[in-house]
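task queued by scheduler; priority normal; single chain, no ligands, no partner chains; default sampling; output format set to C-alpha cells
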Amino acid sequence: MNFNYNHLHFRSGDPDAAAKFYCDNFGAEITSERPLSTTKSINLSLNGHQLMTISGRAEGEDPVAGSTDPRYGLDHFGFEVDDMEEAAAHLKANGVKFGCEPWTMPSGTTVAFIVAPDEVSVEIIMRPKS
C-alpha cells in the first residue's frame, strides 16, 4: 500500500482573495479552477507540487470561523525558507500580519507565524545551516 500527499483543503469566505494571498506571498500558482456544488474550487501548486485546494461556502453549508488559537486537529502548516530576514521583509512589505515575530529557538531553528486569510496559522521556519 502506498500513500502520497494530495492536498490540503481550505474553506474561505473569499476563495479568490485567499488564492491570491498564497500566490503573492509564497509563489504558489493557480493550476485549475472548477465549479464545486454552488461555489468553486481553486487548486494551487508550489514549485510544481500540488499544495492546496481552496473553496468557498456552498449552499446549505455554515462553516465555522477560523482561529489562530492553538487547537486540536490541524493547528497550522509551514513553509521552510533559507533566509528568514528576507522572507519576513517580503511578507511585511505585502502587509501580512504576524501572529509571532521571528525568533530563534535554542536548537538554532528560527520560526515565525503569520495569519493567512480566514485566520489560518502558517509557520515560517528556517533551519540552521550545517
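post-processing summary
- Helices lie at 15-26, 84-93.
- The longest helix spans residues 15-26.
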